[in-house]
Write a structure and sequence with these properties.
Blueprint: H1 3-24, H2 30-61, H3 68-98, H4 109-185, H5 187-207, E1 213-214, H6 215-233, E2 237-242, E3 251-252, H7 256-267, E4 276-283, E5 286-292, H8 305-317, E6 323-326, E7 330-336, H9 351-390, H10 398-416, H11 418-443
Parallel strand pairs: 2-4
Antiparallel strand pairs: 1-3, 4-5, 5-7, 6-7
């Protein structure tokens, strides 16, 4: 028992002893006051220490969060056995050893009522301790989840910014390579390319800080960029655009088309006799960039910035995948078209956030059960005391005790029993079906 618990138990002992001395003692003296304090301590400390140790032992072995049902069932059984044993032992010492009463009356009459009443008070105190331990454990768990969520969000944000910052030097480097080649081949085209490149680079600077842009904006930029490539390669490269009008207001990651167009040019050779044809179109919720495969021999290994950058940025924004398809005739990349413009921190209901919401709902349900249990442990003993004190021959307290007990058992079954498993299994089954359907649509 720690110092705080010891002080709390001492105050409880003092108030209970004082209350009994003031309202129930016929002899008002200092000796009787201390006697009642000692009797109060004889009940308070063993019950508080015993229940505290039991609660700590069970909480260390069985987690309230990971093993809620097992922890609850064991808690109820162990608490009931412990408190009945402690109360009977203390009452035996009090009534039989100290007060010298006949042991034959231990389970009947006034002592029996005292046994029953004290057991219920002990169970009430124990339920409060268990409920307190439960709430503290859940608070720690939810606090930990919130911290983890913040760390994940900060990490994702930093990673996303890092990926976006790759675009600036990457685009500039490749554009300057094209410009360098044009200066030798066609100075007039180089001048036009320089002017156009400044406009395109302005778009790059404007869009690279955004998580998402509309398909319409990205297609407009891609057409401008394709004109520049046409300036460089002339009849060696052809571009075909076939984007559905209803997809224009949806969203994609910025500069994705520029990186993929660059990727097509970089990894394929093109001549007027065998032109490289690049198609940009939409299909089943994806924006596709496809080219006929005429792979050139790589002098050095590619850095892989283009495709890798797109795949990583999409992985931070959505659960939908980027698909890369390759055959002997074509190379195709499918990037998801997103229907909502939301930030990287809120693009999808993550497993962590869903778990947090379920945990919050679970806490409310279990809190409701423990509130019901505490009320039962508090009210029923009081009704029993009133009944046996006023009309012992007619024991009407059985009616509320049994009726409320059935309701309490039903509540416990609903929160911890088989019904809970069935509900969660049905929810999981629906979620699995939905995920399979989405994956099937994504793979079409």
């Amino acid at each position: 028992m720690n110092r705080k618990s010891l002080i709390t138990t001492t105050w409880i002992t003092f108030f209970i002893g004082t209350f009994i001395f003031v309202f129930f003692s016929k002899q008002k003296s200092v000796e009787m006051f201390f006697l009642y304090l000692m009797i109060s301590a004889m009940y308070s400390f063993p019950l508080a220490i015993g229940n505290g140790l039991l609660n700590d032992m069970l909480s260390k072995k069985y987690s309230w969060v990971a093993e809620t049902r097992k922890r609850t069932v064991l808690g109820v059984i162990c608490t009931l056995l412990l408190n009945v044993a402690l109360v009977f032992l203390i009452n035996y010492i009090n009534f039989i050893v100290i007060q010298k009463q006949d042991f034959a009356n231990f389970f009947r009459g006034t002592i029996a009522i005292n046994n029953w009443f004290t057991v219920n008070i002990a169970l009430l105190i124990s339920a409060i301790l268990h409920a307190k331990g439960f709430m503290e454990e859940w608070k720690k768990s939810t606090r930990k989840e919130v911290v983890e969520q913040k760390l994940i969000a900060r990490s994702a944000s930093a990673q996303f910014e890092s990926l976006k910052n790759q675009l600036d030097p990457h685009f500039l480097f490749n554009s300057l390579n094209v410009l360098s080649a044009l200066i030798d081949e066609n100075p007039d085209q180089a001048q036009y390319f320089t002017a156009s490149m400044s406009n395109i680079y302005r778009y790059v600077l404007e869009q690279k800080d955004k998580e998402l842009v509309t398909v319409e904006e990205e297609i407009g930029f891609a057409k401008t960029y394709c004109n520049l490539l046409k300036t460089r390669f002339e009849d060696s490269v052809n571009f075909e655009f076939d984007v559905a009008e209803n997809d224009m207001k949806s969203y994609v990651v910025p500069l994705s088309l520029q990186l993929l167009l660059e990727n097509c040019i970089k990894h394929n050779f093109a001549t007027p006799q065998k032109p490289l044809t690049i198609k940009i179109y939409t299909e089943n919720g994806f924006l596709l960039i496809e080219n006929n495969l005429m792979a050139r021999e790589q002098v050095k290994e590619s850095a892989g910035i283009g495709l890798s950058n797109i795949v990583q940025r999409y992985s931070l924004l959505t659960q939908q995948n980027v698909f890369i398809e390759k055959s002997t005739d074509f190379f195709r990349v499918k990037i998801p078209i997103l229907t909502q413009k939301i930030t990287a921190m809120n693009t999808q209901p993550s497993d962590e956030s869903m778990a947090y919401n379920r945990a919050s709902k679970r806490v409310k349900e279990i809190k409701g059960f423990y509130s019901n249990l505490l009320s039962y442990c508090l009210v029923i003993p009081f009704l029993i005391f009133i009944n046996l004190y006023t009309a012992p021959k007619f024991q009407w307290f059985w009616f509320p005790m049994i009726g409320w007990g059935i309701g309490l058992g039903s509540h416990a079954f609903q929160v911890f029993g088989l019904g809970r498993d069935w509900e969660e299994k049905q929810i999981q089954k629906i979620l699995d079906k939905t995920n399979q359907k989405n994956q099937k649509n994504g793979n079409l």
